[in-house]
Write a structure and sequence with these properties.
2 helices; single chain; mainly alpha; elongated
Length: 65
């Protein structure tokens, strides 16, 4: 039986960080872009981005530790 060795995992850590903070940043940019035309939509984008950030930091942070 051949053992599999785990090599460099820096790409996996970068992937988790991108999943944690990428979508909330995108939602904030979208929120600022539509703030003038649709303030209620912008508020929803900000709330969804904040919730995603809190949940992402909790789940991905737990997986990385």
């Amino acid at each position: 039986m051949i053992r599999l060795e785990v090599g460099n995992l820096s790409g996996l850590i970068a992937f988790f960080i991108a999943i944690m903070v990428g979508p909330p940043i995108l939602m904030a940019i979208i929120g600022f872009a539509i703030k003038k035309n649709s303030p209620n939509g912008a508020k929803i984008c900000f709330i969804i981005g904040a919730l995603y950030l809190i949940i992402g930091l909790g789940i991905c942070g737990t997986l990385m530790s």
